[in-house]
Amino acid sequence: MxxxxxxxxxxxxxxxxxxxxxxxxxxLRSRQVVTMRARSTDEKGVTFRSSASYRADGxxxxxxxxxPSLSGSYVGVEPMGLLxxxxxDTLHKRFQKTNSLIPHVVKFSVHEEEGGGRMLAxxxxxxxxxxxxxxxxxxxxxxxxxxxxxxxxxxxxxxxLDLYTFGGGLSEKRASLLxxxxxxxxxxxxxxxxxxxxNITEVHLDYFEKAIEFxxxxxxxxxxxxxxxxxxxxxxxxxxxxSYLPGVxxxxxxxxxxxxxxxxxxxxKSQILPAxxxxxxxxxxxESGAEISKYAVNDxxxxxxxxxxxxxxxxxxxxxxxxxxxxxxWDSKAYMEIMEERLKHHGKDNxxxxxxxxxxxxxxxxxxxxxxxxxxxxTRKPVLWGGEPxxxxxxxxxxxxxxxxxxxxxxxxxxxxxxxxx
Length: 422
Fold this sequence. Notes:
This protein is of the alpha/beta class.
């Protein structure tokens, strides 16, 4: 390693997962071409890597905010390209970072173009999933299983119920990052976590009703109602929660369906929505071994399926509908348009929409590795998620800010609400 070459991560090598880092190199020869690399291992032990070639300026410096990549995992000026372009060493693997206590550690390095790519400098970026002072409390309260994240300080803070994962287990990443941005967030599991059953055949809204009641009782919560954030299958659950349960002021629906899918929905021991099902014969195989499942969902507007449509006109709160136009898991944009038309037909204007051309299904907090394909919990096979990496990464940056603005705008906070209610 050449001691004269310096790789700098500014303003600090330690930051939150959703924060950009300024990567600079100094001490190179004038106009020297080098390869920049990034490497990380997720909590499942899968290694992700990226690389890009850069040419130093006349002073022997490279600045990723200014200089274009000449070749590699991406080209052009992409300050965070080494992060979002990382790909798994193994096919069809999605970056797994679900435990908020374990940071995303990325090794950046600079290598000579010739001579076997000798390393010239390296630096470690520790990307935290939970901010300083944010409390993390595992929840086993009655039937509720999840984790509660609370920001530091007296509050009041708006409250959000995070339905990140419909599949088995629990993911804390989005919830802990939202809490780091000033929200009290409860993320809940539906099955496959702690002492919960490994599989389910029906979903009960009563579970989410209990979760909302628990969340509203937290002493730092200042919002009169709560927000709900979802993704994929949990999108239709979020619609049903907003439509059937009181106290939901703001709902974020990301790349889901407008109908209740996969499992029948119950409330107070009675079925309120049947399940919109899938036609496996319409799944499209690809050469990579991953399938395209987008067209396998039955038409929710067909006469025999209309009963599964969620009656979102019942909702009193606001909606933010988010659709990635290259989503290969759901026809998210079409479902969003169905919901727009339904609300307008009922004289409602309590919604806003945002579409992202070139983005795929998994829109998450920004700066994680883009996922082209991975195992699907329902089909139990690898599927293509869609999207072009650069466009998808840009969508995640924009959406993350949009979500926070939406919740801050529509979750009314009142300091008098923060008195202890436990």
